[in-house]
Amino acid sequence: MSRADTGLLQRKRLESLGLAVADLPVLRDLDDIEDARAVAALAPRTRTAQRVRALLESAVDVVLPVLNEREAIPWVLERMPRGYRAIVVDNGSDDGSAEVAAGLGAVVVSEPRRGFGAACFAGLAAATAPVVAFMDCDASLDPADLPAVCAPVLAGEADLALGARRAEKGAQPLHGRIANRYLAGQIRRRCGAQVTDLGPMRAARREALLGLGIADRRSGWPLEMVLRAGRDGWRITELPVPYRPRVGRSKVTGTVGGTLRAVKDMRAQLARFKAGNR
Predict the structure, then answer these.
(1) What's the chain's average pLDDT?
(2) At a CB cut-off of 8 Å and minimum separation 6, what does 122 contact?
(3) Plot region of 21 (φ>0 → left; ψ -120 to 50 → alpha; else → beta)
């Protein structure tokens, strides 16, 4: 059973017995998600097709790192698309962010170790859906844009999808735009991934992400993910997403200390990647 030559061997056996063998339309086994999509497309009115559509609609967990985002959380969670489960990772808030998120029905994970990467990894570890998305929880990004970013991954057309930010006036400080342009150029040069933005809204398959072995637990997490994915030959795509002024002050670009830590972490990732590819 379940061998590529099973049908051929059976046909030869029947013909050896002198039986006439007729060919019926070729069907396919349902072993994985691509088979499920194909079967659902061939028989869209069946219970199987209905079940496949239901599974695909709930195939995304959304990791939302949070550090004192109480004011933005309600707007973000109320705009979460149907079938997208919010996993709010509280990274040491003291403003009641975790309680607000839990009260609105989100899954809340506590990660006391400070660091953007630590929060993202905790959310990834808690996720169970086949596809995991990440986005900031400061109302700068709209969850309504998640289906468009996740679609290439859900369809099997891309391994990593990035939301390329189209910033509104005042949404991104000048030093942030300059740093982002520089990092995108470094990614293109070092691993060949044709990206223009190191955007915080992104999606990939959970098992594949875990297999990347991302080690950074601070501000280098987003860069390390793309560098490792590019190195491993992932299909990386970008889709434009609106980017609005955030609610509250950024913990990275909004403070001198945060900016310096991010620069240090990003430089370390570029240096490690360069050293590892010599």
Answers:
(1) 87
(2) 89, 109, 111
(3) beta
Domains of the chain: 29-56 (no CATH), 59-276 (3.90.550.10)
Q: Which pLDDT tens digit goes with each residue over 195-241?
A: 888 889 999 999 999 999 999 998 889 999 999 999 899 999 999 99
Torsion over CA of 33, 34, 37 and 41, rounded to 10 degrees? -160
Tell me how far apart the alpha carbons of residues 67 and 248 are, in angstroms, rounded to a whole number: 11
Is-above-0.85 flag for pTM? no
Extract the tokens encoding 62. Answer: 């959304």
Burial of 69 (0-12, 13-18, 19+ CB in 10 A): buried
The Cα 106–Cα 75 span in angstroms is 13
Enter the tokens of residue 57: 């609609």
Give the model's confidence band at 250: pLDDT under 50 very low, under 70 low, under 90 confident, else very high: low
Q: What is the pLDDT of residue 14?
A: 95
Nearest to residue 126, comparing CAs of 55, 62, 66, 69?
62
Query: What span, in angstroms and rounded, lies between the C-alpha atoms of 222 and 96?
Result: 26
Nearest CA-CA partner of 151 in 134, 165, 129, 131: 131
Strands (E), 44-172: 60-66, 84-90, 107-110, 131-134, 160-167
pLDDT at 254 over 60: no
The strand pair at 84-90 and 60-66 is best described as: parallel
